[in-house]
Design a protein that fits this description.
The chain has one domain: P-loop containing nucleotide triphosphate hydrolases (Rossmann fold), CATH 3.40.50. About 60% of the residues lie in helices and about 15% in strands. This is Adenylate kinase.
Amino acid sequence: MTRFLIVGPPGAGKGTQSARLTDTFGIPAIATGDIFRANIKNQTELGQQVKAIIDAGDYVPDSLTNDLVAHRLLEEDAVDGFLLDGYPRTLDQLGFLDGVLAKSDTALDAVIQLVVDPNEVVSRLLKRAHEEGRTDDTEDTIRHRQSLYKRETAPLIAVYKDRGLVIEIDALGEVDEVASRIAAALADRGIALPDAATK
Ligand code: AMP
């Protein structure tokens, strides 16, 4: 029964840490960015609708994104837990998610906030663009996504802070180091790693 959200600006390492957490806890990652990219790659109708938006570094409309997540959360593997990565990103999405979770009498257990200096991550993102061929990782688009994050997404953290859910993690450093910080912070809150993972 583990319901996490991982949040942080572009390039904070959400995807990498999210893969670690889903392995450890045996829960699926629900990463809206990944779902959109898969749809673009497979040239689905959704993919065609969102390609230009994503390439420009803008946010996909809330209605589309909410709908996608609502369906994904109903799938069998997400019933006992999940890790949301990159959703919610707006206050509208946050409210929608609250509603979806309330319907199944559940709620988030923790919000893992990855904290990084935006300037430090631009070079990291440019490197990723090169390695993964992401078309939304040019320097201009990165700066645009960073400012959108600050304006639209950072305010969500205050809401979750009020609910006592936020775990702040310094996300600069080696992947293992950051993963250990997350594990320690979760343990501090009484969310222990499953036995097999701590051996
Ligand atoms: P990410 O992989 O999380 O960095 O997402 C890549 C891109 O997908 C973002 O820059 C947005 O264009 C779009 N996207 C992903 N998640 C959302 C969301 N929750 N709301 C709106 N747009 C999103």
